[in-house]
Amino acid sequence: MPTGESRLDRMIARLTTQRACLASAAALIAGVPGAVLEVGLGKGRTYSHLRLLFPDRDIWAFDREVHAPDFSRPADDRIILGDFRQSMPDAVGSLPSPVALIHADIGTEKRRGDDELARFVGQTLGPLLAPGGLMVGDRETEPPACARLDAPPVALPDGIAPWPYFLYRRT
Ligand SMILES: C[S@@+](CC[C@H](N)C(=O)[O-])C[C@H]1O[C@@H](n2cnc3c(N)ncnc32)[C@H](O)[C@@H]1O
């Protein structure tokens, strides 16, 4: 059998790391008031997890299209549709304030484009964060006035390498 990591192994690493980072984020923002922004609604998997972690917080989501089922997405008036580069600057003035958590789950296999987009998301939405608020995501985003935190340790099956995830706290 060939050695190395399969795509399934990498998916296990990605999703396990993502869940651990969201749990850590929930603990870190427990005392920070504000809404949650989900960047990359996708199929609504992480949205459904955020809904469980933050039952009392307002959650808004961004995507170019909706392909999440009804039970796993916010109401239509909490979904900002369109390409991030246009929809985010247009929406900034009408988003809730303050924001306690931004979760950016936008990674594809085109690393370079993802990195540029992630930086744009950080620059555009990062200023909405309350002091102590967090931006968490699968790409480096460098939001302004934020300090990088270490990702929490993640227990993975033997032979599966950790997946990078990035946490930034508004200073
Ligand atoms: C990795 S998926 C999100 C998965 C989702 N969080 C989940 O758990 O089901 C990334 C999503 O970002 C959206 N996306 C990527 N680039 C975008 C862009 N430039 N503008 C709008 N949406 C974008 C894609 O349509 C896709 O649904």
Description:
With 171 residues, the chain is an alpha/beta fold. The chain has a single domain, classed as 3-Layer(aba) Sandwich (Rossmann fold). Helices cover 32% and strands 22% of the residues. It has 4 helices and 7 strands; from the N terminus they run αβαββαβαβββ. Strands 3-2-1-4-5-7-6 form a 7-stranded mixed beta sheet, sandwiched between helices. α1 runs parallel beside α2 (45-53) and α3 (84-91) runs parallel beside α4. The longest helix is centred in the N-terminal third of the chain and has 22 residues, at 7-28. It is globular, with a radius of gyration of 16 Å. The mean pLDDT is 95. It binds S-adenosylmethionine.
Question: Which helices and strands occur, and which strands form pairs?
Answer:
Layout: H1 7-28, E1 35-39, H2 45-53, E2 59-63, E3 79-81, H3 84-91, E4 99-104, H4 111-125, E5 129-137, E6 146-149, E7 166-170
Parallel strand pairs: 1-2, 1-4, 2-3, 4-5
Antiparallel strand pairs: 5-7, 6-7
The structure holds S-adenosylmethionine.
Residues 40, 42-46, 63-64, 83-84, 105-107, 117 line the site of S-adenosylmethionine.
Give a short overview:
The chain has 171 residues and is of the alpha/beta class.
Bound molecules: S-adenosylmethionine
Shape descriptor: globular
What string gives the helices and strands in order?
HEHEEHEHEEE
User: Residue-averaged pLDDT, rounded?
Assistant: 95
Q: Can you give the helix content as a percent range?
A: 25-40%
Query: What's the structural domain tally?
Result: 1
Q: Give the low-confidence spans.
A: none
Q: Strand-residue fraction?
A: 15-25%
CATH homologous superfamily descriptor: Vaccinia Virus protein VP39
Reported CATH architecture: 3-Layer(aba) Sandwich
- Give the C-alpha Rg: 16 Å
CATH topology: Rossmann fold
Count of alpha and pi helical runs = 4
As laid out across the biggest beta sheet, the strand order is 3-2-1-4-5-7-6
The description of the largest β-sheet is: 7 strands, mixed
At the first level of CATH, the class is: Alpha Beta
| SS elements, strand count | 7
